Structure to design on (159 residues):
């Protein structure tokens, strides 16, 4: 059982590091590369014909921020739930601080990327995405825990 917990903790830690690296790498892209990427997503989703390009591009960029940080929030909350067994509730404060720090650093990095700027509203958007990820991971945790409890109860009744 101990090896299973260590393996899960390691995998979740790697997810947190990978998603954080992905976020930072996107922040280092210059304005033109970022715009090209947004346009390719717009074309992929066939949104260009539906709405004005500027509006669609803004929505795609903001959605990308939220999706990236929802992924980070899910990873961080998954790791926090795994570590909660050893560190009690203080691990959740560390989790919140981590995602907020990543959001602030992400916007700060964009100050140094050619053709990009940072905005406080993006930090709030990023953190909101993280909260969505936190809640999603927690809901998965609750469902999995109830399913496991149901299986344990079923085994007891059969014995």
């Amino acid at each position: 059982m101990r090896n299973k917990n260590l393996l899960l903790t390691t995998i979740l830690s790697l997810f947190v590091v990978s998603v954080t690296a992905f976020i930072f790498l996107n922040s280092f892209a210059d304005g033109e590369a970022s715009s090209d990427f947004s346009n390719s997503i717009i074309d992929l989703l066939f949104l260009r014909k539906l709405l004005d390009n500027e509006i669609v591009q803004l929505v795609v960029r903001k959605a990308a921020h939220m999706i990236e940080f929802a992924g980070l929030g899910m990873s961080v909350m998954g790791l926090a739930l795994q570590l909660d067994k050893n560190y009690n509730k203080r691990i959740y404060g560390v989790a919140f601080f981590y995602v907020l720090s990543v959001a602030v650093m992400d916007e700060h990095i964009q100050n140094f990327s050619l053709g990009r700027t940072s905005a406080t509203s993006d930090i709030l958007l990023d953190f909101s995405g993280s909260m969505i990820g936190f809640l999603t991971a927690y809901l998965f945790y609750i469902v999995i825990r109830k399913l496991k409890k149901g299986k344990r109860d079923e085994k007891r009744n059969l014995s």
Notes: The mean pLDDT is 83. Residues 120-158 form the longest helix (39 residues).
